[in-house]
Amino acid sequence: MAADDPLRTHAALTLEHLAGRGLLTLQPEYRMSDLITAIAERAGATVLRDYEGTSLNAIRQMAGMGMGLAFLPEFYVRQEVRRGADVVVRPIAGGKLYREIGLVWRSGTGKPASLRALVEGLRAVANGDTAYRKKLSK
Question: First vs last Cα of the chain: how many Å apart?
Fold first, then answer.
């Protein structure tokens, strides 16, 4: 949200805080847009389709200008949003949004053991397994 938004005083936001507010999102072909639309419907908010972003940076900038509230992935926030910036970041109370990612291969593909090892590594990293991350960095 913009640094001067009234919701900035809350440590975390609930769906009730979003009621009647405009939500910024990426273009509809992105999975994130579907998630934001579902939140808007549950919260009584409006997705601002006239201001769809083409990137997370665009959404952050629009939020900073007070055009609406933006949902940004935690990894993006940790890398791109600094204290004292044009936006204020608050978590949503009651859980995190997530998306599913799949990895598939043809049954006749060579080296299935390598592909299974890749799957194991991706799962470990996604689940925050720091021991596995250290193993990979060696």
Answer: 40
CATH 3.40.50.300 fits 6-80, yes or no: no
Rg for the chain (alpha carbons), in Å?
18
3-state helix, strand, coil in the chain (%, to 5): 45, 10, 45
Domain boundaries, the chain: 6-80, 101-138
Q: How far is CA 22 from the centre of its chain?
A: 17
pLDDT (tens digit per residue) in 100-116: 777 888 888 778 888 88
Nearest in space to 46 (alpha carbons), one of 66, 71, 18, 73? 18
Whole-angstrom distance, CA of residue 77 vs CA of residue 60? 10
